[in-house]
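Researcher: Here's a chain I'd like modeled. Treat it as a single chain, no partners, no ligands.
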Amino acid sequence: GMLVTLKLVAISFTLGALLGLLIALGRLSNNRFVRNFTGAYVYFFRGSPLLAQLFLLYYGLGSFKGLWQDIGLWWFFRDAWFCTLLAFTLNTAAYQAEILRGSILSVAQGQREACKALNLSRWTTFRKIILPQSLLVAIGPLGNELILMIKASAIASLVTIYDLMGVTKMVFSRSFDFQVYLWAAVLYLLIVEVVRRSLKLIEGRLGRHLQ
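Model: Modeled as a single isolated chain. Structure tokens:
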């Protein structure tokens, strides 16, 4: 169950980071339509409960069986694993987008102007100058988002995913021993502690030039 939880969180957080970066750039775009669309995306997924989003994807979209069969996507929406992975990815992407947007804006405007003076392309400026500095600012908030995702992943058990909490519930239904929930809490705590210490090392590594 713990391996399923780690796999679910790792994949959804990674995909969410990629999607979140695109959304963050969209939020900073000069195109009004792109800016409004990405803003609405962030507003919806940050403003509604993750559990509701999961149910909408699994039970809501999953009820359109005929449609998904016609376009060849029924294999995806009938599977609780894929629906949960999609829900977690879309949700964390909204939070990561706002974190990345704020960190990108934190980079001094003077550095962008210096890149223009050096005739650097926008892509080179972003990849070599803006993104590395913004990641240093974002690593702490992104770590908090990862920890929140690990704890929130327990709701996956509500759609028949046998993650850490799903297996715990199954064991309790057979043994009626409340201690199993205590051990599950300890395992969640251990996972979070490992993540916290790893992020601290990464943050120290990225910011070693500031020490």
